[in-house]
Design goal:
This protein is 46% helix and 12% strand. It has 10 helices and 6 strands; from the N terminus they run βααβααβαααβαββαα.
Length: 185
Amino acid sequence: MATSIKWVVDTNIVRGANPASDKPMAKKCAEFLNFIKQHKHMVVMTDDISQEWNKQRPTSGDRNNTYMSKFSKDWRSSMVARGLVYFCKIADTDKFYHSAKLDEEKTIKDAHLIDAVLNTEGICIIASDEDNCRKAFLKIAQTEEKIKCIVWLNPTDSSLTIFDSQKLESLILNETFLKLISRTS
């Protein structure tokens, strides 16, 4: 049996998911979230990720008026109900931005994704369509040994970035990862 993959799903993927949308990107995000659920993978939830997912629309004080679509809210509830959410506590001292030189706003904004991977055991992959951020972290990985373990998938265009080629070997041996790659090709 294949090992379950843990996914750090960026807010833009969750918020953008809508299978009924006319927009291809929204459909791809929804397909990706369904893939995670169908294969019983886990989604990593930290305090920072939860706060970002729950961010309310600026025009409303209503707790239920988040940026998430109904599909995304239902998906999240289903993942929690199935026990497929990996809750990860990260101490401030363990946060990546304390140890690295994160000059650019785009890296500081999404450093919590790196924190989640670094504090999660097993195969853990970032899912985000923030390509500028991915490129910035890839550059940082050249000098920061700590983040060379990162694998980053953009589910909207199926691009995969492996910060260190040694990580590829463990992924290739994972049966469900191969299903994902063949599905997105």
